[in-house]
Amino acid sequence: MSCLDLEALRAELEEIDKRLIEILNERAVLALKIGDAKRALGLDLWDPSQEARVLKRASGLNRGPLSSEALEVIFREILSTCRAIQGPVRISFLGPEGSFSHLAALSQFGRDASFSPCQTIAEVFRKTETGQSEWAVVPIENSTEGSVRSTMEELLSTPLMVRAEIILPISHCLVSKAPSIEKVERIYSHPQALGQCRGWLRENLPGRELVEVPSTSKGALMAARDPSAAAIASPLACEIYGLKMLAETIQDSGNNVTRFLVLGKGMSDPTDDDKTSIIFSTRHRPGALCRALLPFAELGVNLLRLESHPIPQRPWEYMFFADLEGHASRDPLRKAMARMEAQVTHLKLLGSYPKGRSGK
Asked: Can you tell me the distance from the alpha carbon of 262 to that of 160, in angstroms, rounded to the nearest whole number?
């Protein structure tokens, strides 16, 4: 290839870039009009069901060489930017900045949203319930450590609805101001992160003090103030708090994934690829749980997850959390839930929402 050929290709790229800028601005103008229409109708600026349809359509149109994953990242940023010019979208998450909840929120809403870090998961719920934020992003379960108890307890009583889910691969790092691992005397992190790295810590930092803190980014903040300490945190936290990366990918499982919920007011519309979450309790009788779940089997509804959870302040009483395929407003799930209601003492719909995909 000659220099003339290279220059011709670059000139062609420049023309494409010009058209791309024009098309993006055309999209932005339409987004502004849609934002005005949504406000007039009293609708949320962020519509997770519509966004899921846009991303699915983009993936279906893709013929490469861009991967579908790369295209989704690009489209999420376009959607985020268009939302930002419509008006502020406020999201609360478990902070400080740099937590995995922050990463999950960024993967869903993009960098142009307005993010509000909270000190506890309870505060995330309260801010969203009182309208200080439109959306809450909270962890619900991890593939190795299981459910997040504080989130489960908040779901028992919150009026918020689950509107979306985020599936985020988790890669833990050991970060510190210390010059080397040998100089580390204690490690700060969230209990789940410490559990996810238990084997690595036992092999590489035996006998060190393990200090539990409310979030991984809180641990990073504390490690930044203590030169003899380290934290298990995200690469983003390492960057934000000016720490040194002592070790990467220290989680024991190579398939370490955390699922997050996005909560807000109202219900997401059906997308034909949805999940529904419920809480229910049964009578203390033999076969009560079997009878409660039987309608799902009879009507062909797939049960994705079932977990019991103690009811606070009521010893030896339990609620059941379940995830099901389908949308609560559509059959066969609608019929199955109606039949279930006759077999349980309590049934709460947490929400129906688009199935999440990896938030890399």
From this structure: 10
Beta strands in the chain (DSSP E): 90-94, 114-118, 135-142, 146-147, 161-169, 173-176, 186-189, 209-212, 229-233, 244-247, 257-264, 274-281, 303-310, 318-325, 346-354
Instruction: Output the pLDDT for position 360.
Output: 47
Beta-sheet pairing, 114-118 with 90-94: parallel
> Which run of H or of E encompasses 336?
helix 333-341
Average the pLDDT over 169-192 and give the result.
Answer: 92
Q: CA dist 218 to 120, 209, 210, 236, 355, Å?
A: 11, 17, 14, 13, 30
At 29, phi and psi to the nearest 5?
Answer: -60, -45
pLDDT at 317 over 80: no
Q: What is the pLDDT of residues 138-150, one digit of tens each?
A: 999 988 888 888 9
- Tokens encoding 194: 């410490």
Q: Whole-prediction pTM value? A: 0.84
Please answer whether residues 27 and 82 qualify as being in contact, where contact means their C-beta atoms are separated by less than 8 angstroms.
yes
% of the chain residues with pLDDT over 90:
67
Bond prior to 354 in cis (omega within 30° of 0): no
**CATH fourth-level superfamily of 268-354:** ACT domain (3.30.70.260)
pLDDT at position 359 over 60: no
Q: What's the CATH fold of domain 173-247?
A: D-Maltodextrin-Binding Protein; domain 2 (3.40.190)
Q: Is 153 helix (H, G, I), strand (E, B) or coil?
A: helix
> Taking Cα atoms as reference points, which of 260, 96, 62, 308 lies closest to residue 162?
260
Residue 268's nearest CA partner among 52, 61, 57, 33 is: 52
Find how far residue 311's CA is from the centre of its chain.
Answer: 25
Calpha distance 51→80 (Å, rounded): 10
How large is the average pLDDT for residues 163-178? Answer: 93
What is the distance between the alpha carbons of residues 226 and 186, in angstroms, rounded to a whole number?
9
CATH homologous superfamily of 90-170+257-262: Periplasmic binding protein-like II (3.40.190.10)
